[in-house]
Amino acid sequence: MNDFASTPELILLPAVDVAGGKAVRLTQGEAGSETTYGDPVEAALAWAKQGAQWIHLVDLDAAFGRGNNTAVLRKVIKQIKGVQIELSGGIRDDATLEAALESGASRINLGTAALENPEWAADVIGRYGDAIAVGLDVRGTTLAARGWTRDGGDLWDVLERLEDAGCTRYVVTDVTKDGTLQGPNLELLREITSRTPKPVVASGGISSLDDIAALRELVPLGVEGAIVGKALYAGAFTLAEALDVAGD
Q: Which residues form the catalytic set?
């Protein structure tokens, strides 16, 4: 058995980003850069049929503060059987959090709220534990908030605060890579995993099966999974091929 075969599995989370009721992909998280890919339920069903264990489901309109796709997201979660859902976008208070938890999602990804309302975020992490992940959307070492339109503070200061609050998982996105198919930021992931023992889900930039192989090599350091979006939609590889490389 070679070293790679003995490396633990990398969990892949195909992304279904929803805006205006449609599945879309953005470039570098910018509103207005959407490419539309049709019905979110059909997109999620396709990933489920191809073997996804998890789906990363995002309400982009809620993230940008321009309405929501709650009904559509609930429909996706209801129709996708046997697949766990990580839900993200616009979850900023008790009401939106409780609605998200009641939707049937397995895990909720907090973004802006964890940066702008640290006391609330710490309380939520304390109450719900492993059901809460915190998204760290990064440009350099500066965090991005409000749909990546505002500065959210220093990455290392915020990470230290979240560690103190007992955060159980981080979803790390290099904003400059997202939707660009330029490869993930492996150095950023190595740096973050060196500063926390908690699992990290990587997001942004995956363009090839080689990128997935490179991320799998970081599993022993603490990279638990990877969100895959544009490369799948663009047909760079199939989910089955990606799962094979990821060790499924």
A: 17, 137
